[in-house]
Design brief:
4 strands, two-stranded antiparallel ribbon, binds iron/sulfur cluster, single chain, High-Potential Iron-Sulfur Protein, Chain A, 2 helices
Length: about 100
């Protein structure tokens, strides 16, 4: 039996793969937003903790999901805030497995 794939079928597969690859970042972003609105994860499930050292610049205050508290300046840094993905009050000096740097 010949192992033959027609050119048309191969091009269809290529087009499907390319469109799926192009859409996946958009879908992931939407899923993250939907998760943020409806289902936040527990801090323990993502190993959230306060980091006492520099941690290579990886802390909630530098994360794209961090929402600062209302106070401005140093007061805001001390009061902390919330997170789009993780439930509860979040310190700007915290860190978890979902960290993503701001762009
Ligand atoms: S590091 Fe984790 S807890 Fe902190 S803001 Fe980012 S996602 Fe939220």
């Amino acid at each position: 039996m010949a192992n033959f794939v027609s050119r048309r079928r191969w091009l269809k597969g290529l087009a499907f793969t390319a469109s799926a690859a192009a859409l996946s970042p958009l879908l992931l972003r939407r899923a993250a937003r939907a998760t943020a609105v409806t289902h936040k994860v527990s801090p323990a499930s993502v190993q959230y903790r306060i980091v006492m050292g520099p941690n290579h610049g990886k802390h909630c205050g530098m994360c794209r999901y961090f929402i600062p508290g209302r106070a401005q300046g140093m007061g805001g840094m001390c009061l902390g805030g919330t997170c789009q993905l993780v439930a509860g009050p979040i310190s700007p000096m915290g860190y978890c497995m979902l960290f993503k740097p701001r762009t």
